Amino acid sequence: MPINKHSLPVLIVGQGLAGTILAHTLDQANMAFNMVDAPKTYFTSSYAAGGIFNPVTGRKLEKSWLVDELFSYLFPFYRTLEKALDISFFHPMPLFRPFANEEMKGWLLDRKEAIHNEYLRWEEEGVWIENAGWLDVECLLKCSKQYFQSKNLIKEIAINPSIDLTISVDEVHFQGQAYACVVFCEGFHAQKHNPFFGHLNFLPAKGELMKIKSVEPSQEYILNKNGFLLPLGNDGFKVGATYRWDDFSNQPSLSATLDLRNKLTSLGVNSYEEVEMSTGVRPATQDRRPLVGFHPQLPLAIFNGFGSKGVSLSPYFAQQWLAEWKGEGQINSEASIRRFYHLFST
Ligand SMILES: Cc1cc2nc3c(=O)[nH]c(=O)nc-3n(C[C@H](O)[C@H](O)[C@H](O)COP(=O)(O)OP(=O)(O)OC[C@H]3O[C@@H](n4cnc5c(N)ncnc54)[C@H](O)[C@@H]3O)c2cc1C
């Protein structure tokens, strides 16, 4: 570990959701940092995200990984951030999962006692999930950018780590400034363009969603049945999302449009106006766990791999990243890149 690590700032590469959450975490802890973010032409995941947080996933209504720790942290985290930035972007909202069909209903009801957890409320037609909701990711990112700009902390640059960074054992130089550590939050771009962490187990997944206007569905809750319907207010909804592992272009595809129209039909929405498509690539991993931690030899770090759950995972793991950086704790072993230290040459 670098000896001077707390006297120099940290450089954060990427102001998607991950970089933004990490930056706010450092800011709240009064740790010095700077950020760089590539121009808008760079393709992100965050600007396409539905922003949903949901403690129960899968057909069997299981609690998602680490849910109790994540969810007790994310509510106060986002509420505190709303106050600090003086804007509303965190929208807790119930989520309704209708039973897929009579067979599934019977299967779930037969096992209700075993399946039940504190996030579920059972009804004749389906199950309500409490403590769900959505984060307006675009709003958070835009007002965070203004906040970082007002403090002169962010520059618009696409870094080429091999050329732009001068790395020694205990510090990194970038544009004449010494940094204690560079933490890469580049989303799926890391796999192709990061010479230090690109060999980790990324499995990017392209996703598309559609914004629609409709007066048919309820604005009061998120509907989730083989896809989601997320109310935005003023008859606006997001419907999503698709998954693809063979195309990483930033163009909306006809196959995704058709898939989303089918989802709308199965969600019971027949009359709607299509407003726009959003396209992004999720920084997912083969073992579905984040990539958080420190390079074993160099003053470099990573905060990435949040897949389709950046909203619920990133606040908790930003705090864990910081604790390990300060020598006050260790990142959860399933998320820490220590699990890949054997892949780094010595
Ligand atoms: C269709 C879709 C729906 C989704 N729905 C949800 C959802 O409902 N709930 C949820 O929790 N998650 C959802 N996600 C996933 C969510 O978007 C991600 O988990 C999260 O946004 C990842 O953020 P990130 O910052 O790691 O990556 P990104 O958003 O991709 O950000 C990476 C940033 O790094 C910058 N960058 C890259 N390389 C460089 C460089 N060399 N120099 C400088 N900057 C660089 C990029 O410009 C970008 O700003 C969805 C994703 C998609 C595509």
TrEMBL record:
<dbReference type="Pfam" id="PF01266">
    <property type="entry name" value="DAO"/>
</dbReference>
<keyword id="KW-0274">FAD</keyword>
<keyword id="KW-0285">Flavoprotein</keyword>
<feature type="domain" description="FAD dependent oxidoreductase">
    <location>
        <begin position="10"/>
        <end position="325"/>
    </location>
</feature>
<dbReference type="InterPro" id="IPR006076">
    <property type="entry name" value="FAD-dep_OxRdtase"/>
</dbReference>
<keyword id="KW-0963">Cytoplasm</keyword>
<keyword id="KW-0819">tRNA processing</keyword>
<dbReference type="InterPro" id="IPR036188">
    <property type="entry name" value="FAD/NAD-bd_sf"/>
</dbReference>
<dbReference type="GO" id="GO:0016491">
    <property type="term" value="F:oxidoreductase activity"/>
</dbReference>
<keyword id="KW-0489">Methyltransferase</keyword>
<protein>
    <submittedName>
        <fullName>FAD-dependent oxidoreductase</fullName>
        <ecNumber>1.-.-.-</ecNumber>
    </submittedName>
</protein>
<keyword id="KW-0949">S-adenosyl-L-methionine</keyword>
<keyword id="KW-0560">Oxidoreductase</keyword>
<keyword id="KW-0808">Transferase</keyword>
<keyword id="KW-0511">Multifunctional enzyme</keyword>
